[in-house]
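Page 42, continued from yesterday. The earlier attempt failed because a stray header line got pasted into the input along with the sequence. Redoing it now with the clean sequence only.
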Amino acid sequence: MAGGIKHGFRRAAAVAGTGIVGYYLITRVIPPLLGITSQMGYIVAYLVAIVSLYSLFLKMNYWSTGYLMGWIIGLYFLRGLFESWEWSIHMLISILYLAKKLKRKIFG
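This time it went through. C-alpha cells are written below.
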C-alpha cells in the first residue's frame, strides 16, 4: 500500500470515525428497527469490532513502514475515541508489525 506517515494518520482517523458511526448505528438505531434488545446490539457491535480488527490486521503486512508509523501516531492521538480494549489490541498488533518490519529492514 502506497503512502507514508500522513496517509497512515488519516487512515487511523477514518477508522475511528467510521467506528463511532458504526457503533452508534449497531447499538442505537438498528436494534429498535429489528425489534431486538439494545444488549443484543452491544453484542453485535463487539463481534463486528473483532471481525474488523482481524481484517485490518491481515492488511497490515502490506503497509509501508512509514504508513504503519503514521497509523500508530494517529491511534495514539485518537485513543479517546476507542474502547480501551480495542485501542490496546490495535496498538499491540501495530507495534508488533512495526517491530517485524524494522527487524526485516535492519537484519535482512
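Notes: The chain has one domain: 5-107.
Reminder to self: strip header lines before submitting.
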